[in-house]
Amino acid sequence: MSDLSFGTLLRLAGETVRDPRVTFARLRNLDLPQGALWEALVLVVVVSVLMAELGNMLLLATIPEGTDAPQFLSPFVFGALQFVILAVSVILIDRVGRAMGGEGRVEDALLAVVWLQFIMICLQVVQSAFLFILPGVAGLILIAGIGLFLYLLTAFVAELHGFASMGRVFGMILVVLVGVALGLSFILTLTGVTVPR
To answer: What pTM was estimated for this model as a whole?
Structure first.
């Protein structure tokens, strides 16, 4: 599979939803260099920022005049924050998986994060379209997207580390997510940062 055109990527995205482990295994077989994968990570972050900015503009356009507009993070801050989160995700997928007996490489973890982010961007485009056509359906797509994210992440981690049990991997992901959330809460408490009410 040498054709990585946009049409091919969309087709692979659809195949990933239907059979994530098999499709991800095919992507791994491409053996993409780590440098190219980091460039792809930067690219998906840039696209995510552009999508977020477009969504913010559309939201501001719907706010009645005289109403206080919501405050958004600047594109640079949002992009930097997202890049850090994705990079940390790569490290966690690699280190935690190998600590549990997995056999994946950091390149595999990087590919998993990049590909998962690409699929989520595709889903975001669909959701944005439904905001204009059927707003109620857009909310359902958001809920389905959360489930799809966890399902694909579980399948990717299981495949790249050679785990047979999807349930075990899902449990590991939940434990890591809770641990990260608690860790961030602890750090924010130490630094005196409070959540606005």
So the answer is: 0.86
